[in-house]
């Protein structure tokens, strides 16, 4: 992927990647964000709320409806994986309460804050929403201080997501 970006004969104006606070590896550590920053390529972060996980509204997994595919086929949403991943949501929720905002607002604004780091690309989170209230909530800018960002970095450094984002047969399509 990185070689392609450097050798492309046509102008690449944006790259779309799945990235959220539960993402370990790939876009955060493989150099993609830095290369995009160097080349002036916009990064569109789809699913910045981890398919709703970071909305902070689903606790426990049994709250999902019977026909919800997330708990049926997505490893991150199943059994012990869900419980382990929910701990990060609980930790972020503590910061959100302190700031008077929601878990989803912290998650989205954290992505926006990555753009302020030296050498990073501009990152535009594109959360999906089904309700007008959620759209307003997700569009709210929250001022994350340097201290807030250090707190989030500490949380993320000690967190390892349990289970992949997608089932194995789909994961091959999301890795560069």
From TrEMBL:
Residues 1-18 form the signal peptide. It holds the Pfam family Aldo_ket_red. It comes from Fusarium oxysporum f. sp. cepae. Residues 20-156 form the NADP-dependent oxidoreductase domain. Transmembrane segments: none annotated. The lineage of its organism: Eukaryota, Fungi, Dikarya, Ascomycota, Pezizomycotina. Gene3D superfamilies: NADP-dependent oxidoreductase domain. One of its GO terms (cellular component) is cytoplasm. This is NADP-dependent oxidoreductase domain-containing protein. InterPro entries: Aldo-Keto_reductase (IPR050791), NAD(P)_OxRdtase_dom_sf (IPR036812), NADP_OxRdtase_dom (IPR023210). It comes from the Eukaryota. PANTHER family: AFLATOXIN B1 ALDEHYDE REDUCTASE, PYRIDOXAL REDUCTASE-RELATED. One of its GO terms (molecular function) is oxidoreductase activity. Keywords: Oxidoreductase, Signal.
């Amino acid at each position: 992927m990185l070689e392609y970006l450097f050798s492309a004969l046509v102008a690449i104006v944006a790259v779309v990647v799945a990235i959220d606070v539960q993402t370990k590896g790939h876009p955060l550590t493989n150099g993609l964000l830095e290369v995009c920053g160097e080349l002036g390529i916009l990064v569109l972060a789809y699913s910045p709320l981890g398919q709703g996980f970071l909305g902070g509204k689903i606790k426990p997994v049994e709250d999902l409806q019977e026909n919800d595919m997330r708990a049926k086929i997505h490893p991150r949403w199943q059994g012990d994986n869900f419980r382990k991943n929910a701990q990060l949501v609980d930790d972020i929720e503590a910061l959100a309460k302190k700031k008077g905002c929601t878990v989803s607002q912290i998650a989205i604004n954290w992505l926006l804050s990555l753009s302020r780091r030296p050498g990073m690309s501009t990152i535009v989170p594109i959360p999906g929403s089904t309700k007008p209230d959620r759209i307003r909530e997700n569009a709210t800018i929250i001022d994350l201080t340097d201290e807030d960002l250090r707190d989030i970095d500490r949380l993320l450094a000690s967190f390892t997501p349990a289970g992949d984002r997608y089932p194995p047969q789909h994961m091959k399509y999301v890795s560069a």
